[in-house]
C-alpha cells in the first residue's frame, strides 16, 4: 500500500497599506514601477525599516493558528541573484516569528489537526515579464510587499486533506483580517511538496508551483501522487525537483532550476536588530481574534441543527454566517434560512456574477417570508419567487405580496372549482390514473396550480384532488 | 591671526566667530579652499561642486548680513567621502560599477550637517567600495599624501584625510569598517573618529560590512571632531541599528585625572621605533601630570585582522550583490544571457580587491563553511568582553593607530595580506563596537605623521574627547602643516 | 587551509563574477592564506570552531517599528533614469536562456 506524504508552504500577503521595509504603497492599480523608492529598489546605502502593522498582523495570525510566538525573532538574508530581487537577497527570518500550532480540518474519518511548523515574515520580489523577442522586463511595484510564510508539517495524506487545510487556513487569515488571501491575485500562494512511499520512511519529495486555485492544488497533488507511484512501480526513483503545474495540459512539468544547487548563504540581517515582542503586544492582538472557523462550524451545527455541508458554506464567509444568524434571530427558521441563503441568494448572486455585499434583502425579510408561510398567506413556491425578486431591491415583503396580489387562496370553493375543471378537461389522464398510473397525480396538481396562478395552498389542493379522484 | 592663518589653522568655532565678526566672508572662504584643492593637485577630490558651493556661500553671506546666523557648522566648507549619498549628486564609491549612478536621496549625516549650515565642497577619493588601506584601489587613481607625495594617504578614506591635512576643507566625513577613518587620519597627521557602533546613522552610507561600518569626522583638531560629532550623532528612525541614546553634547573643558591603560602593542617588534618613541614621550608627559598610566595585556591586534576579514567580507559579499547592472550602474556591453550579463557586469565593473573580498565572503558563507563565520563572532565577543573588563578599571585605552607610517605607492598593493594588516590596531574597535579616535602624536625622523589611538568604553565619546583635548595641550602637532 | 580550485569556481559562480583562469589561481592562494590565518588565530585564542554559536545577541531590547503610513517617493523618474536599459518604464533584462544555471 502506497502512502502519500504532503507538506505545504503558503505565502500569504499581509494586509498592510505599505510595504514591509519602506513607506511605498501596496497597490497594483497603476503603471509599473510607480510604487517604488530607493529602499525597495535596493539602491546603494539604503536601510530597511520594519512595518509594525505587518508584525502585529503576523502575531495575530500566529495566535489564531495556536502557534508559540517567539519573543525574539531574527531577520536573515537569503542570498541569490534574480532580476526581480533588487538587493541580491531577500529579507526573511531565520528564527521565525512563531513556531508550532495547527489547523483543524474535517476529513472522512473525522477531525484532524494539521500541524504547523513555522510562521515567519518576509518580503516579496518584483514581477518579471517575458516577451517572445528574448527580452524580459521587471516591474518592482511588488518588490518588498509583506508576506507571511506558513509552513505545514508533512502530515497531509491526500489532495482532499490538502484542500481542506488550505481552505481552512485561508478562512482563518480572512477572519483575523491579516490577509485577503485571494489566490487569483497572488495573495495566497501554495507550494505543496509531495512524496510517495511504501515504507514508514518518507520518499523523495517534489515541489509543485504555479497553483492558482484550490482546484489546481487538488488536481496537481493527485497528478503528482499517481505519477510518483508509477515511477516507483516501474522500478525507478523519483527525482527531487521542482515542478510547474500546467493548467492547460493538466500536468506538472519539471522546472529548470535557477541555480544548480541552491546555496542561499543565509545569515543574520545585519541591518536590523532582532525583533523583540512583549506580552502587551501579544495580548493586544488576542483582542482582535474573533470566533474562528472551527469554533463557528461546531457551534452552528449544534445551535441550529444544520448539516455539515451547510455549515461549511456559512463558515467560508463570516458575512454570510452572520446574515444567517441574524435572520434566525429575527424569527426565521434555521431550515428555511439556510435553504434560502445557500440555494436561492447565493445561486442568484452566482448567476449575476455579484458579491454577497451587493444584496439589499435584509435578514428580517427572510423572517417575514417565514411568517407569511406559517400563516398560510403564501406557499413555499411563492415565497421563493418573492425572495428572488427582492434580492437586489430590498422591497418590503408585505408590500410586494399586496402589490402583486400574491396572497394564497385558501377559499375551498375556488380550489374545488379549479379541481373539477382540471378533471373534466383531462379525461384521458384521469382514466390512466384510475388504471394505476399514480405519478399523474403531480400533473393534476400542476394543472390546478396553473389555474390558480400558483396562489393556491398546496395542502388544500392535494387533499381536494385526492378526495375527488378517490370518489370516482 | 590673518585670514590665511585663520583658514589654515583655526577651529570651527574660531572660524564662525570670525565670520560673525565680518573678518571674512563665506564666499571668500569657499573660494580659498577650492583654489587650494586645484593648486595642490593631490587627487583628493573626485568631484568639486564649485558653482553650488559658491551659491550656498552667498546665501550664507546674506544671512550674515542680516545677522540671521544659526548652526553649529555655519558656513563651514566640508567634504564627503564618495560613499555617502547626496540627492542629485553622483555616488560612485570610486568604482567603475557606479560611475553613472546618481543618488536619489540624501544620507542622514548630510541632512544633519546641511541643516547646521555646512557647505558641501565635493566628494573625496577612496578605496573602491571602501576596501583598502591606501586609496590605491580607487578607479580615479591614487591620492597623494600631502606630507610626502610619493606615499599613500592611507585608506580607505584617503581623500578625506589628505584633504583635511592639506587644508582643502575644514573637515570631511569618512567611513570606518576596519580603520578606514583612523588609519588615514594617522598617516596624514589629522584627527579621525570612529564613533561607537550605533551612534551615527548609516542611512545613505553605501554598505561595506553593515555590522562594522560607522561614519565619522576627519578634522584638524579634537575640538572640531567633537563639534562635527555633535551634529551627526543621534538616533535615526531610518537606521534602526542606530541606538536610542541621548544625543551627544559638547563637553566642558574641565580637566581631570585619567586612568590610562596602554596596550602592549607598544612593545610589538613590528611597531615602527619612531612611532614607539613618540608615544612613549607622550605617555611620560601624561604621567608627569599625575595621571595613572599602566601597561596592560591587550594584544588582540594579533588576531583582529583575520577575524575582521571573515566577518567583513561575508557581509560585503551580500551587500555588493545588488550591483547587477539592472537598476543602476555599470552593465557589460556584450553578453548572451541573463547570467552571462551578471558575470561580465560584475567581472568588469568591480576591481581586483573588491572581487577578492566578495569571493572570500561568498566562500565563507557557503553552507559547509558556516562554522567559520559563526566563530568569527566568538572572537568579536571575546574582544568586546575584554574591553568591557578593561574599562571597569581604566577610562582610556591607548594604542598606536598603526604599526607604520605612510608607505610608498605600490609597496603593498600586490600583497593583499600585508595590506590587510594595516588595519590590525584599528579593526579591534570595529569588531567590539567601541569608539576609537586617532589624534596626531608627532612625526617620524623622516617627517611622516604618527597617530595615537584613544579607545573608550562604548558610548563614552565624552571621556574620549576630554582626554584628546587634554593630550592636545601637550603639543602643537595637530597644527603642523605639510609644506606646499 | 587547502581550498580546491573547484571551490573558487563555485564561489565565483554563486557570486556571479566572471574570473579568468589566472585570477582563479591567484585568488585561490589569497583565500587559503586568509582562511589559514583565521584558523591560526582561533587556535592561539583557544577558540573552537562552532557552527551553532549564537551571534545574534543584541544589546538593544527594543525594536523600532515603523507605522503603516504611506511615505510616497515622488521622484521615481530619478530612479528609472539611473537604469542602463529601460523600455516603457520597465527595467529591461536579457531573458534566461539555456546555459544559465
TrEMBL record, chain B:
Allows the formation of correctly charged Gln-tRNA(Gln) through the transamidation of misacylated Glu-tRNA(Gln) in organisms which lack glutaminyl-tRNA synthetase. The reaction takes place in the presence of glutamine and ATP through an activated gamma-phospho-Glu-tRNA(Gln). It is an enzyme of class 6 (ligase). InterPro entries: Amidase, Amidase_CS, Amidase_dom, AS_sf, GatA. GO terms for biological process: translation. This is Glutamyl-tRNA(Gln) amidotransferase subunit A. It comes from candidate division TA06 bacterium. Keywords: ATP-binding, Ligase, Nucleotide-binding, Protein biosynthesis, Transferase. Residues 28-464 form the Amidase domain. Belongs to the amidase family. GatA subfamily. Pfam families: Amidase. It comes from the Bacteria. Signal peptide: none annotated. It catalyses: L-glutamyl-tRNA(Gln) + L-glutamine + ATP + H2O = L-glutaminyl-tRNA(Gln) + L-glutamate + ADP + phosphate + H(+). The gene is gatA. The active site is at residues 81, 156, 180.
From TrEMBL, chain C:
This is Asp-tRNA(Asn)/Glu-tRNA(Gln) amidotransferase GatCAB subunit C. It holds the Pfam family GatC. SUPFAM superfamilies: Glu-tRNAGln amidotransferase C subunit. The gene is gatC. It comes from candidate division TA06 bacterium. It comes from the Bacteria. GO terms for biological process: regulation of translational fidelity. Signal peptide: none annotated. InterPro entries: Asp/Glu-ADT_sf_sub_c, GatC. The keyword Transmembrane helix does not apply.
Amino acid at each position: 500500500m502506497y502512502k502519500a506524504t504532503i507538506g505545504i508552504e503558503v505565502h500569504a500577503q499581509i494586509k498592510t497599506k505599505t510595504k514591509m521595509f519602506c513607506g511605498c504603497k501596496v497597490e497594483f492599480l497603476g503603471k509599473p514601477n510607480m510604487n517604488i523608492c530607493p529602499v525597495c529598489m535596493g539602491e546603494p546605502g539604503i536601510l530597511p525599516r520594519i512595518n509594525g502593522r505587518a508584525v502585529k498582523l503576523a502575531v495575530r495570525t500566529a495566535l489564531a493558528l495556536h502557534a508559540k510566538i517567539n519573543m525574539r525573532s531574527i531577520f536573515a538574508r537569503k542570498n541569490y541573484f534574480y532580476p526581480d530581487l533588487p538587493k541580491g537577497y531577500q529579507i526573511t527570518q531565520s528564527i521565525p516569528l512563531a513556531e508550532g500550532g495547527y489547523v483543524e480540518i474535517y476529513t472522512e474519518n473525522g477531525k484532524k489537526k494539521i500541524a504547523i511548523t513555522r510562521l515567519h515574515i518576509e518580503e516579496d520580489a518584483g514581477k518579471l515579464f517575458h516577451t517572445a523577442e528574448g527580452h524580459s522586463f521587471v516591474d518592482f511595484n511588488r518588490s518588498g510587499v509583506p508576506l507571511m510564510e506558513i509552513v505545514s508539517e508533512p502530515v497531509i495524506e491526500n489532495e482532499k486533506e490538502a484542500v481542506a487545510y488550505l481552505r481552512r487556513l485561508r478562512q482563518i487569515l480572512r477572519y483575523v483580517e491579516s490577509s485577503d488571501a485571494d489566490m487569483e491575485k497572488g495573495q495566497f500562494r501554495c507550494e505543496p511538496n509531495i512524496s510517495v512511499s511504501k515504507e514508514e520512511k518518507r520518499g523523495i519529495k517534489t515541489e509543485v508551483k504555479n497553483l492558482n486555485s484550490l482546484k489546481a492544488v487538488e488536481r496537481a497533488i493527485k497528478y503528482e501522487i499517481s505519477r510518483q507511484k508509477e515511477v516507483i512501480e516501474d522500478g525507478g526513483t523519483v527525482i527531487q525537483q521542482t515542478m510547474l503545474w500546467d493548467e492547460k495540459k493538466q500536468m506538472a512539468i519539471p522546472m529548470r532550476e535557477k541555480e544548480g544547487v541552491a546555496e542561499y548563504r543565509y545569515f543574520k540581517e545585519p541591518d536590523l536588530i532582532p525583533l523583540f515582542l512583549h506580552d502587551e503586544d501579544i495580548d493586544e492582538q488576542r483582542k482582535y481574534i474573533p470566533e474562528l472557523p472551527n469554533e463557528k462550524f461546531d457551534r452552528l451545527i449544534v445551535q441550529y441543527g444544520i448539516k455539515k455541508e451547510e455549515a461549511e458554506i456559512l463558515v467560508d464567509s463570516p458575512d454570510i454566517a452572520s446574515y444567517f444568524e441574524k435572520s434566525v434571530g429575527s424569527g426565521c427558521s434555521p431550515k428555511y434560512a439556510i435553504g434560502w441563503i445557500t440555494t436561492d441568494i447565493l445561486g442568484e448572486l452566482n448567476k449575476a456574477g455579484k458579491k454577497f455585499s451587493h444584496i439589499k434583502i435584509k435578514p428580517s425579510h427572510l423572517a417575514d417570508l417565514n411568517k407569511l408561510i406559517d400563516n398560510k398567506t403564501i406557499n413555499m413556491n411563492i415565497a421563493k419567487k418573492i425572495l428572488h425578486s427582492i434580492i437586489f431591491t430590498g422591497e418590503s415583503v408585505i408590500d410586494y405580496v399586496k402589490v402583486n396580489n400574491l396572497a394564497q387562496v385558501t377559499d375551498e370553493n375556488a380550489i374545488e372549482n379549479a379541481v373539477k375543471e382540471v378533471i373534466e378537461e383531462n379525461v384521458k389522464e384521469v382514466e390512466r390514473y384510475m388504471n394505476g398510473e399514480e405519478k399523474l397525480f403531480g400533473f393534476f396538481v400542476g394543472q390546478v396550480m396553473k389555474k390558480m396562478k400558483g396562489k393556491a395552498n398546496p395542502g388544500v389542493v392535494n387533499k381536494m384532488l385526492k378526495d375527488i379522484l378517490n370518489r370516482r | 591671526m590673518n585670514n590665511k592663518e585663520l583658514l589654515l589653522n583655526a577651529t570651527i568655532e574660531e572660524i564662525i566667530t570670525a565670520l560673525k565678526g565680518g573678518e571674512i566672508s563665506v564666499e571668500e572662504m569657499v573660494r580659498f579652499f577650492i583654489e587650494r584643492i586645484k593648486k595642490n593637485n593631490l587627487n583628493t577630490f573626485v568631484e568639486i561642486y564649485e558653482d553650488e558651493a559658491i551659491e550656498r556661500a552667498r546665501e550664507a553671506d546674506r544671512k550674515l548680513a542680516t545677522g540671521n546666523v544659526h548652526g553649529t557648522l555655519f558656513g563651514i566648507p566640508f567634504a564627503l567621502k564618495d560613499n555617502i549619498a547626496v540627492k542629485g549628486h553622483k555616488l560612485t564609491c570610486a568604482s567603475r560599477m557606479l560611475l553613472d549612478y546618481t543618488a536619489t536621496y540624501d544620507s542622514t549625516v548630510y541632512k544633519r550637517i546641511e541643516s547646521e549650515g555646512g557647505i558641501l565642497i565635493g566628494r573625496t577619493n577612496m578605496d573602491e567600495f571602501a576596501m583598502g588601506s591606501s586609496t590605491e584601489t580607487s578607479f580615479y587613481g591614487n591620492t597623494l599624501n600631502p606630507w610626502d607625495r610619493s606615499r599613500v594617504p592611507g585608506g580607505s578614506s584617503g581623500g578625506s584625510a589628505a584633504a583635511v591635512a592639506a587644508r582643502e576643507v575644514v573637515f570631511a566625513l569618512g567611513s570606518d569598517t576596519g580603520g578606514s577613518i583612523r588609519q588615514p587620519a594617522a598617516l596624514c597627521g589629522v584627527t579621525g573618529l570612529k564613533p561607537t557602533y550605533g551612534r551615527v546613522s548609516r542611512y545613505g552610507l553605501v554598505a561595506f560590512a553593515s555590522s562594522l561600518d560607522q561614519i565619522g569626522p576627519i578634522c584638524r583638531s579634537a575640538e572640531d571632531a567633537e563639534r562635527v560629532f555633535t551634529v551627526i550623532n543621534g538616533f535615526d528612525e531610518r537606521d534602526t541599528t542606530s541606538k536610542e541614546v541621548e544625543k551627544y553634547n559638547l563637553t566642558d573643558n574641565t580637566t581631570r585625572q585619567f586612568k590610562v591603560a596602554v596596550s602592549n602593542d607598544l612593545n610589538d617588534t613590528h611597531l615602527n621605533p619612531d612611532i614607539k618613541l613618540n608615544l612613549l614621550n607622550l605617555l611620560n608627559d601624561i604621567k608627569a601630570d599625575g595621571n595613572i598610566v599602566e601597561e596592560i595585556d591587550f594584544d588582540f591586534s594579533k588576531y583582529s585582522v583575520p577575524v575582521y576579514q571573515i566577518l567583513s567580507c561575508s557581509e560585503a559579499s551580500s551587500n555588493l550583490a545588488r550591483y547587477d547592472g539592472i537598476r543602476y550602474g555599470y552593465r557589460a556591453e556584450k553578453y548572451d544571457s541573463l547570467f552571462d550579463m551578471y558575470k561580465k557586469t560584475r567581472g568588469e565593473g568591480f576591481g581586483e580587491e573588491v572581487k577578492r573580498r566578495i569571493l572570500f565572503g561568498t566562500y565563507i558563507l557557503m553552507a559547509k563553511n558556516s562554522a567559520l563565520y559563526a566563530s568569527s563572532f566568538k572572537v568579536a565577543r571575546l574582544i568586546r568582553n575584554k574591553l568591557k573588563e578593561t574599562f571597569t578599571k581604566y577610562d582610556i585605552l591607548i594604542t598606536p593607530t598603526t604599526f607604520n607610517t605612510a608607505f610608498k605607492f605600490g609597496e603593498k598593493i600586490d600583497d593583499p595580506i600585508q595590506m590587510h594588516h594595516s588595519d590590525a590596531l584599528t579593526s579591534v574597535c570595529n569588531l567590539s563596537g567601541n569608539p576609537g579616535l586617532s589624534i596626531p602624536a608627532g612625526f617620524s625622523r623622516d617627517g611622516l605623521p604618527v597617530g595615537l589611538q584613544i579607545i573608550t568604553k562604548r558610548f563614552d565619546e565624552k571621556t574620549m574627547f576630554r582626554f584628546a583635548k587634554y593630550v592636545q595641550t601637550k603639543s602643537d602637532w595637530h597644527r603642523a602643516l605639510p609644506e606646499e | 587551509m587547502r581550498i580546491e580550485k573547484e571551490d573558487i569556481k563555485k564561489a565565483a559562480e554563486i557570486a556571479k563574477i566572471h574570473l579568468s583562469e589566472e585570477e582563479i589561481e591567484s585568488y585561490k592562494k589569497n583565500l587559503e592564506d586568509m582562511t589559514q590565518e583565521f584558523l591560526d588565530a582561533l587556535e592561539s585564542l583557544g577558540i573552537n570552531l562552532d557552527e551553532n554559536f549564537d551571534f545574534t545577541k543584541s544589546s538593544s531590547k527594543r525594536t523600532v517599528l515603523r507605522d503603516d503610513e504611506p511615505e510616497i517617493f515622488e521622484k521615481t523618474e530619478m530612479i528609472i533614469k539611473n537604469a542602463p536599459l529601460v523600455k516603457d518604464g520597465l527595467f529591461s533584462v536579457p531573458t534566461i536562456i539555456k546555459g544559465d544555471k
